[in-house]
Amino acid sequence: MAYRDRTSTKIKGAILAQLVKLTYRLPKLMVFGFAYLVNLISRLTRSRSNRVIRQNLALCYPELSVPETEQLIKQIHFHNACLLSEFATAWLGRRDQILNQIGQIHHQSVIDDLLEQNKTVVVAVLHLGNWEYLWQWLQIHYPAFGMYQPSKFKQLDEIVLESRTKFGGKAHSTDPKGIMGLLKQLRQHGVMMILPDQAPREGAGIYTPFFGHPAYTMTLLHKLLIKSGATLVFGNSIRNTQQSCFDIHLEKASFDCHEPSVEVFNQQMNQQIEAIVRRWPAQYQWNYKRFKRQPEGKKIYD
C-alpha cells in the first residue's frame, strides 16, 4: 500500500509539473479561459471551494445583503481564476516577464529607509492578490529570504523552489534547522518575507480574533521579531485589472512590532491584516479554511 501511495504521488507530481510548464507556454487568454470555466462551475455548484467561500463570508461580512454577497462571490471567483492562470508565469517567468507584470510601487521608501539604517525588514504578505509576484519583486530588488515548506509532490516542489531562488533569493525550510538558519540571516540584515494569515500547525499558534472570530494565529513571527530586532512591514501585490498587472503596496506596521506580549502583538497584527483585506476583499483567498481550528473543537466548515 505504501509503495502504491508513493507511486501515485510521484505520478501526480509529474502531471502537475508538466501542466505548469504547459500553461506557461500556452497563450494567456487560453489559460485564463480554462481557469475561468473551472471557477464558474465551482460558483454554480456546491463545490468545496464555493462552500468555504460562502461560509467565510457569512462569518466575516454578516452585514452584506444577499445580492451584495452574491456579487462579491462572483468577483472572488473571477480573481481566483486570475490567480490560477498566473502561477506558471510567476514561477517560470523570466526577469523581464516578471517586471513587465509590476505596475506602480506604493511607498517603496518604507523598505529603503530601513535598509539605509542597516535594519532588517520583515515583510508580512497576505494571501491577497498574487503573493508570488511580491516575492519575485522582492528578490529582484533586495537581498531577500524567506521560509519554504516543501510540497509532497517532488517535481512540482522543484519548480517552486527554483522560482524562489532564481533571482538571488534564499529559501529556508520550515524544520528546526531551517528556522535557525532563518534567525541567523535575520541578524545579518536584508528583507525577509513571511505569510502570517494561515492557520499554523498544532502547538505553533494561539487563538486571536480575526473579523471578530477566533483564528488560530502563528506565534513564529512575534518570536522572530523579538529575537532579531527586525522591523515589520506589510506588503501586498494587488491585481490591477485595468492594466493587467500588479501594484505593490507597502506600509509600516501600525503597532509596536516589538511588543513583548504575543497575545497583544497577534491581536494588533490581525487588526491590521483585517483592515488590509477590507480594502480589496475580492482578491483575498476566501476559499482557504482560515477558521478550521477552533477552541473546544467547534466546527465552522461542513
Automatic annotation (TrEMBL):
Pfam families according to UniProt: Lip_A_acyltrans
Entries under InterPro entries matching the protein: LipA_acyltrans
Keyword terms of this UniProt record: Acyltransferase, Cell inner membrane, Cell membrane, Membrane, Transferase
Locations listed in the record: Cell inner membrane
Keyword Cell membrane: yes
MF annotations from Gene Ontology: acyltransferase activity
Protein name per the record: Lysophospholipid acyltransferase family protein
UniProt lineage: Bacteria, Pseudomonadati, Pseudomonadota, Gammaproteobacteria, Oceanospirillales
